[in-house]
Amino acid sequence: MAALSIRALSKRYANLEVLKDIALDIESGEFTVLVGPSGCGKSTLLNIVAGLDRPSAGTIEIGGRVVNDVAPKDRDIAMVFQSYALYPSMTVRQNITFGMECRHVPKTAQDAAVANVAKLLQIEPLLGRKPSQLSGGQRQRVAMGRALVRDPLLFLFDEPLSNLDAKLRVEMRMEIKRLHQRIGATIVYVTHDQIEAMTMATRIAVMHQGRVQQFADPDTVYRYPANLFVARFMGSPPMNTMPARLESDKDGLVAVIGAGRPDEVRLRLRDYDGAAPFVGRDVVVGIRPECIAEGSRAFSGEAPVLVEAPVDMVEPTGAETMVSLRLGGEPAMARISPDIRPAPGASASFALDTRRICLFDPETERLIA
Amino acid sequence: MPDRTFAPSRIWIYLVVSLIAAAWLAPLAVVVLNSLRTNEEIAQGSMIGWPQHLAWSNYAAAWSGFCVAETCAGIRPYMLNSALITIPATIFSTLLGAVAGYAVSLWRFRGDTWIYGIVTLGLFLPQQMRLLPWTIVLRDIGLINTLAGLVLIHTIQGLSFTTLFCRNYYVAIPHELIRAARIDGAGFFRIFWRIILPLSGPILIVTVIWQFTHIWNEFLYGVTFTTGQQQPVTAALIALSAAVADIPQHGVQSAAVIIAALPTLLIYLLGGKYFVRGLTAGAVK
């Protein structure tokens, strides 16, 4: 059963169209992440699902029921906000029971539900405190407790980790994922952080300019980005995208970066039959930074393509060394072994894994193959 | 820590400040001193002078013995009138202003900025302009010369200020709180009662002090819409000075003025620090 179905949904404010023809089907138990840069419409979409905002057109179904005209409280949802939105004058316990109080749940049932959730989130010692006496991570937990206690069909998270420091963010990320695995809830989670999307989601909806650019599992989004926007948004650093010319010879297809230059780079492509109509035309080649490594690297299986390329800059991060270089005159990032430090300004040898190259149509910016 | 060392150049500052303070306080000082002098003493000397012996009897006379209009019960009944007008009008206007401020700041609805604009427009209408409309309204609903009529006037006139105060305080409250409460199933009034009102302490103190002082000290409506036994103390004080045409009773009059001013003074002394704090709340985060 689809826990959430969004069909032909659009939202406009006066002359500004913030959501255009959104269609999403989310299965029960899925962890869906809506990700995109700020202003892409992801939070508006979440607010519309919650019933805090109205769509201009289209329908929303939650658990098979059209909820367009249903009040937020009757949609069987719970929401966690970026600012946590804990009620400042209430204790943690009152924060958690407030919703049940509004729904006239008997006191004994309330107590049992609080005990249950407090144990799950390990916030039992905090129940008597006020939100102002809690740390950021504790507030986050209480906000989740307030959502969990409702046991809804659908959980909505609106950038819940944005206010935490980096270390805590990673911890809470794992905790939310663990929670999802344990209780099997259906979650729609909004973030601008593509790492959160990759690490937590079972499916990612990448949004840009009010449209869903791609809706797929994290591996597919990463490996086969639907268009140049997704390619450049997902991944840190993002996919290198370089203009190239597609040629063919007796052995098959070749993408040439910087065609005609003395330092042109020829990349032989195997199993890219879908790209055949583009032979003799311009394409955009996409290579992930981890597919460009030091010359001595053997990518599993085949012999890599070796390239001599000038190095612009070197950024050691400890776990690896990031290198900006030029391939056929085009800037690119490489991710090489941490102990190798090529000299900036000089040339170095790089190994390219050509099996994971993506080709895009420069006109439509869509993935060709 | 402020610099506590004394520099000679500061003498000028102290001098100027002291002069201003003296000019400001002189009328009060004259009234306080006269309230402690007997009539004979004032009549023999001048209006300005040190009491030769303290005449506390002026206060007793002003409170319960002196004749105002045709009755001789001092200003006590009029103090009671003022309290019966000021306390309910302060409570009603503050609560209504809080609800109105909450509605225009935290709930979006069609025309909300217009409604807020019209309500606060009331701040700029001179009092005299409103006399005639109020006369018609009070006459038509039968509240001329009643305390209830003045309560109604002050409640409604106060709304402009109380709505403005509360709205400006509430705009700083994050909207996500309201959204969270709506998802939790709380409606307009439950959110106000359980979430917004408990956060409103500072602004309610400011509003109460403001409303109380203004309504207590208000004179024009009191003297226009009530007569005789129904008058608030501000209007009665005038009647008091008019009633003593034969011999000036400056001592008793001064004592009456001070008694009449005491409630607002006390309110300010008790809540003054919250008042200053509340006025600047939000200005400095």
UniProtKB/TrEMBL annotation, chain A:
Free-text function comment from the UniProt entry: Involved in beta-(1-->2)glucan export. Transmembrane domains (TMD) form a pore in the inner membrane and the ATP-binding domain (NBD) is responsible for energy generation.
Stated family: Belongs to the ABC transporter superfamily.
Protein name: Sugar ABC transporter ATPase
InterPro entries: AAA+_ATPase, ABC_transporter-like_ATP-bd, ABC_transporter-like_CS, ABC_transpr_MalK-like, ABC_transpr_MalK/UgpC-like, Mo/tungstate-bd_C_term_dom, NA-bd_OB-fold, OB_MalK-like
Native source organism of the sequence: Bradyrhizobium nitroreducens
Primary localisation category: membrane
Gene3D superfamilies noted in UniProt: 2.40.50.100, Nucleic acid-binding proteins, P-loop containing nucleotide triphosphate hydrolases
Cellular localization per UniProt: Cell inner membrane
Domain of life: Bacteria
Keyword terms, alphabetized: ATP-binding, Nucleotide-binding, Transport
Residues covered by the ABC transporter domain: 4-234
GO cellular component: ATP-binding cassette (ABC) transporter complex, substrate-binding subunit-containing
Keyword ATP-binding part of the UniProt annotation: yes
GO biological process: carbohydrate transport
GO molecular function terms listed in the Swiss-Prot or TrEMBL record: ABC-type transporter activity; ATP binding; ATP hydrolysis activity
Membrane topology: Peripheral membrane protein
Automatic annotation (TrEMBL), chain B:
Pfam hit, one: BPD_transp_1
Entry similarity comment: Belongs to the binding-protein-dependent transport system permease family.
Coiled-coil annotated spans: none
Sequence ranges assigned to domain ABC transmembrane type-1 in this UniProt record: 79-271
Domain of life: Bacteria
Protein's UniProt keywords contain Disulfide bond: no
Keywords: Membrane, Transmembrane, Transmembrane helix, Transport
One annotated Gene Ontology cellular component of this protein: plasma membrane
Gene3D superfamilies reported for this sequence: MetI-like (1.10.3720.10)
PROSITE patterns tied to this protein: ABC_TM1
Organismal lineage: Bacteria, Pseudomonadati, Pseudomonadota, Alphaproteobacteria, Hyphomicrobiales
Topological type in the membrane: Multi-pass membrane protein
One of the GO biological process terms: transmembrane transport
Name used for this protein in its record: Sugar ABC transporter permease
Transmembrane segment boundaries: 12-33, 83-107, 114-137, 143-170, 191-212, 255-276
Subcellular location(s) per record: Cell membrane
